[in-house]
Amino acid sequence: MKKFLCVISSMVAMSLVTLAGEATWLHDFEAAKAQAKAENKPIFINFTGSDWCGWCIKLEKEVFSKKEFQEYAKENLVLMEADFPRNKEQSAEVKAQNKALDEQFGIEGYPTLFLLDADGKKLSEDVGYRAGGPAAYVDHLKSLLKK
Q: Domain containing 43 — which CATH number?
């Protein structure tokens, strides 16, 4: 029951953000999988050190925060962030989930990003940082999803 309520609350939160015009990163993997199934979209999972990793911060500034990426993500992806911050607070549940995901996917550095199906299985290898801004990044994601 607790898991069900988490999934529902995450989907409601995502709906409210989507109505506001921006895609947002979920932090609950089960909720991301449920949303991916409900919307028939792939999950784009971002393993990041959001408050200390230079490449992660650069990717956020150059791509993820830009309108082109936001519009594409809102229509085509379920965004999932597995964050490993040094200075941000996280619940014990989120920390445990992220550690398990880190081990499951064999993460060796940040940022590491994958496209996943609604069951959490890899559809791509590491997408990582790519130069060229949001348009080039979106084009790369589209090409990966065509395969």
A: 3.40.30.10
